[in-house]
Design goal:
With 113 residues, this protein is mainly beta. The protein has a single domain, classed as Protein Yojf, Chain: A (Distorted Sandwich), CATH 2.70.180. The chain is 11% helix and 54% strand. It contains one helix and ten strands; from the N terminus they run H-E-E-E-E-E-E-E-E-E-E. The strands form two sheets. It has a seven-stranded antiparallel β-sheet with strand order 6-5-2-1-10-9-8, covered by helices on one side. The chain has a three-stranded antiparallel β-sheet with strand order 3-4-7, with helices on one face. The protein is globular. The N and C termini lie far apart (29 Å).
Length: 113
């Protein structure tokens, strides 16, 4: 695992059991979700068409996503954060910011959550 992956992994695993808030901005569209983080998995993608990123973090746990009608349950018991070929990460205390070629993710841990 490279240093940046390790930085993400360390920050995320430190939040296990906590409520996290996720903001994803892609093409001026913002999606919001919250999840009680149970586990973190770094998974490779094998995609012949190169549609999927080569790897992704799967954040598992029960959660909700913001919809037009308010908060709704996540369709699956995980939230996927795909890593493109180029990305950068910054962490500070209770937040992590990940910028990929496709989107910017801001993940914040709820204090005492």
């Amino acid at each position: 695992m490279n240093d940046s992956l390790d930085k993400i992994w360390t920050w995320l695993t430190a939040q296990k059991g906590q409520l996290i808030h996720i903001s994803k901005v892609e093409d001026a569209d913002e999606d919001k979700a919250e999840l009680r983080l149970q586990d973190v998995v770094l998974t490779p993608h094998k995609d012949r068409d190169e549609y999927l990123s080569s790897q992704a973090f799967l954040l598992t746990g029960e959660g909700k996503v913001q919809s037009e009608n308010g908060m709704a349950p996540l369709p699956y018991d995980f939230y996927e954060v795909p890593l493109t070929d180029r990305w950068s990460v910054e962490t500070s205390g209770l937040s992590l910011q990940l910028k990929t070629e496709r989107a910017t993710y801001v993940i914040k841990a709820a204090k005492g959550g």
